[in-house]
Amino acid sequence: SSGINAEWPLRPGQMIYPDHNYVIIDGYTEPGNSQQRFCLGQLSNVSRNNTVEKTRKHIGRGVKISFEDNKVYIECLGDSAVFVQSRNSNKEYGFHPSTVVKIQSGVKLKIFCHKLFHEILTQQLTEGYEAVFDLTKHCMIRMSFVKGWGADYHRQDVTSTPCWVEMSLNGPLQWVDKCLKYIGSSKNPISSVS
C-alpha cells in the first residue's frame, strides 16, 4: 500500500510506501526514514493555518494500519478519534458507499477485506470495463484525524478537514489493472464534449 498525507487546503504531504505488515502514522516529530512509522509532526507547510496547527497537536499516537490474514485494519492509538471512509468495508457492513466511520481511541476496525474485494471484482468482470474501473474507488481509503466529514458534519469532503491521509491499496489496484488489460478498452463512445 501507499499513502499521501495532506492538510487543508493543500496536498503538501509526501508519499509513503510501508514495507512491513503495519505502519504507524502519528503526530510526533521523528525525522527518521522508518518504513514502519510516519510522523506528521515533522512535516512543514508555510500555508498552515491555526486550525490545522491545533488539530495536529491532538493527533498524538495516531493510528496503526496493519495487514493481517488478507485484511487491512486500522487501530486508533491516540486520544482523539479518526474518521475513515472505505467503500470495501462499507459494502461488508451494509453501509452506504460514502459512509464515514468514526473510530474512537482504542478501537480496531477492519477497513479492507481482500476476499470480499476478489468476489466483487469477479462479479464486476461480467459488467464490463466501466464496472471494473469503478472498483479503483474500493482501493482508496480516506482518513482524517480529530475532525470528521461527510453527511453528519459540516465538512462534506475529506479535503475540507484540517489533516487527512489517503491510502492506495496497491495489490488490489494491480488486480483491477490486470482485469482492465484483459477486458480491453471502454465500449462507451466519447466525444469532444463528454
Task: Write structural notes for this entry.
With 194 residues, this protein is of the alpha+beta class. 23% of the residues lie in helices and 28% in strands. Strands 2-1-11-10-7-8 form a 6-stranded antiparallel sheet. It has a 5-stranded mixed sheet with strand order 4-3-5-6-9. The longest helix has 14 residues, at 170-183. It starts with a strand and ends in an 11-residue tail after the last helix.
Which helices and strands, and how do they pair?
Blueprint: E1 2-7, E2 15-16, E3 22-26, E4 37-39, H1 50-56, E5 63-68, E6 71-76, E7 82-86, H2 87-93, E8 101-103, E9 108-113, H3 114-125, H4 129-133, E10 140-145, E11 163-168, H5 170-183
Helix pairs in contact: 3-5
List keywords for this structure.
28% strand; 5 helices; 194 residues; alpha+beta; 23% helix
